[in-house]
Design goal:
alpha+beta; five-stranded antiparallel beta sheet; 28% helix
Length: 272
């Protein structure tokens, strides 16, 4: 989930980051189960139930359920739905591009991540998802102590712009929806845009945690919100992909709290 945040940037202790890691692993495991279940014939409500089961089985709470009235455990956004899709009776079909956003709380600490899953073979949609995921990892690699928020957005943007030129595809970054700080609340300062200028914005410090989440369309990224007051769709009907991880800034590199392997970017023990 995304929005706009203001206020103090929360800096966590090692013990608090360890608690966030526990929440991040619950999210990772729920997303793995749900992503594996995405197939023709399954409903988005069933995907939601699977995520609820995993989160509950780990003794965690869903971050999304009841958040400003959101009625489900996960967001499931299909094709031209960009973000905040509400699970329900919709049946997944071959050729769909399904974005799944999940959050969980462990001992008061949040984790938040999203993946996109392609149902079947559609090369242009597979490329869209791959480019979006690649831009996420470019942003994650920029999340080093001493860097700035603008460095993350610039890395995300540069990846998408380069891919659009290389593949001659109209990839477009969704404006108005950003990543965010995360910790004792799901959405906190600072905003983490998916574009920006290097060297601009708040400086990243050891102990900060942020959710980086590029949303990219194949075609125009102009948006509107449906009558349910949640689901954000492309006004042009452009398919969209959404990838996200929760990342801790540490003295030994970015620690991807919502990846089972921690992201593979650490140069040592982040809790040492």
């Amino acid at each position: 989930m995304v929005g706009f945040r203001r206020g103090r940037i929360e800096v966590k202790s090692r013990d608090q980051l360890a608690a966030m890691r526990a929440a991040g692993l619950v999210v990772a495991r729920a997303l793995a189960v749900v992503a594996a279940a995405v197939s023709p014939g399954i409903t988005t409500a069933r995907l939601d139930a699977l995520a609820a089961d995993v989160i509950g089985d780990h003794g965690a709470l869903p971050s999304f359920l009841g958040y400003h009235g959101f009625p489900a455990t996960i967001c499931v956004s299909v094709n031209d739905e960009i973000v905040h899709g509400i699970p329900g009776p919709r049946v997944i079909r071959a050729g769909d591009l399904v974005s799944i956003d999940c959050g969980a709380i462990v001992d008061g600490w949040h984790g938040d991540a999203a993946v996109s899953v392609l149902v079947g073979a559609a090369p242009e949609l597979q490329l869209l998802s791959q480019v979006t995921e690649a831009s996420l990892w470019a942003g994650i690699r920029a999340a080093e102590a001493g860097s700035r928020i603008g460095d993350i957005g610039a890395a995300v943007e540069a990846t998408i712009v380069a891919a659009a030129a290389e593949h001659r595809q109209p990839f477009d970054i969704v404006d108005g929806y950003t990543g965010h700080g995360i910790g004792t609340a799901m959405h906190m300062a600072p905003d983490v845009p998916n574009f920006g200028e290097p060297g601009r914005g708040p400086k990243l410090a050891v102990g900060m945690a942020i959710a980086i989440e590029p949303m990219v369309t194949l075609g125009s990224a102009d948006t509107r919100v449906l009558a349910d007051d949640w689901t954000v769709v492309s006004t042009a009907g452009s398919p969209a992909a959404h990838w996200e991880h929760t990342v801790a800034v540490t003295s030994v590199g970015p620690w991807v709290l919502t990846a089972e392997d921690g992201g593979g970017l650490l140069r040592g023990d982040p809790l040492a």
